[in-house]
Design brief:
Blueprint: E1 11-17, H1 21-30, E2 39-40, E3 45-51, E4 56-62, H2 78-88, E5 91-98, H3 102-111, E6 120-127, E7 133-143, E8 152-158, H4 161-164, E9 176-186, H5 189-199, E10 210-212, E11 218-223, E12 229-237, H6 240-250, E13 255-257, E14 260-263, E15 272-276
Parallel strand pairs: 1-4, 5-8, 9-11, 12-15
Antiparallel strand pairs: 1-5, 2-3, 3-4, 6-7, 7-8, 9-12, 10-11, 13-14, 14-15
């Protein structure tokens, strides 16, 4: 395999495991998000997408458990991870960065000892805003940190990005524009920071307990005495006052502090949802 130079990374998307996909989608809609239709995967999961300028949220659930393959040596089962995560809780299950060459990244993960898994390719039909059919395809490469067992990390290479990204899907009544931050709790933050450095191919600019990616987004690490996991994410919005008004209208619990609005995990499907304006 030809060596490739490290490329700057960005947050591509977040995988949010939920038990009732349509009910959660309606709650996101009520909060001013545009939510895509239901997609079905041949390995048993189903999702709905909330797309932003260069990142998206993947709301996911188990649709047909009989289709799920189990983990095996060299094979990370996306469906099994989602199923097992939902057996414990709802929440932010997976952090995904972009990739220009997922097969290269899989080789790199194995060489660095953070994931000896075969790349996973899949494709599906999609719908444009006008209802016409389109075709999307992805290759995923998975990494794993045993110190944070309740989270999964992978990169995603989009083979037909123009068929996926669409400005018509990126218009949200609450002014949301992008994922800006993900917070992970780890029993050994220093060890996990080293894992993230290897996972992102050194595409961080170290800054205390926050690791900003070179292209877009940042990852915050906080200590946790338990199993740890992905506990919060932050979205960039145009106007915090408009978000506050929507939250008040919907009767959703929230707090304001340090320039952010935060919906606590117990009020938002197992994850802290935060909103901020440009820094």
């Amino acid at each position: 395999m030809n060596a490739l130079k490290a490329s700057p990374k960005r947050i591509d998307h977040l995988v949010l495991a939920v038990r009732d996909l349509d009910a959660v989608a309606e709650r996101y809609r009520a909060l001013g998000f545009q939510v895509g239709g239901r997609n079905r995967h041949p390995w048993g999961t189903e999702n709905r997408i909330v797309q932003f300028h260069s990142s998206f949220l993947e709301l996911i659930t188990v649709g047909d458990e009989s289709l799920i393959e189990e983990h095996r040596p060299g094979h990370f089962s996306f469906g099994a991870f989602v199923r097992d995560y939902l057996a414990r809780r709802e929440g932010l299950a997976m952090l995904v960065l972009d990739s220009e060459d997922a097969r290269h990244d899989a080789h790199r993960f194995a060489k660095r000892g953070i994931g000896a898994f075969e790349p996973f390719f899949f494709e599906r039909k999609g719908r444009r805003p006008d209802g016409s059919e389109t075709h999307v395809a992805f290759t995923l490469a998975f990494a794993h940190d045993p110190a944070v067992p309740d989270a999964s990390f992978f990169v995603c290479q989009q083979h037909f990005p123009d068929a996926f990204w669409n400005t018509a899907f990126q218009q949200h009544a609450n002014g949301a524009r992008n994922v800006t931050e993900v917070t992970v709790q780890a029993s050994d933050p220093g060890h996990h920071a080293a894992f993230l450095q290897a996972f992102a191919d050194g595409a961080f600019v170290p800054q205390d307990a926050v690791l900003p990616l070179q292209k877009q987004g940042r990852i915050a690490i906080s200590p946790d005495a338990g199993a740890g996991g992905l506990v919060a994410f932050t979205l960039l919005v145009d106007d915090l006052a408009a978000v506050s008004a929507l939250l008040g209208k919907e009767g959703i619990e929230y707090s304001i502090g340090q320039g952010r609005i935060t919906i606590p995990a117990h009020a938002w499907f197992g994850v802290d949802l935060q909103f901020e304006m440009s820094r």
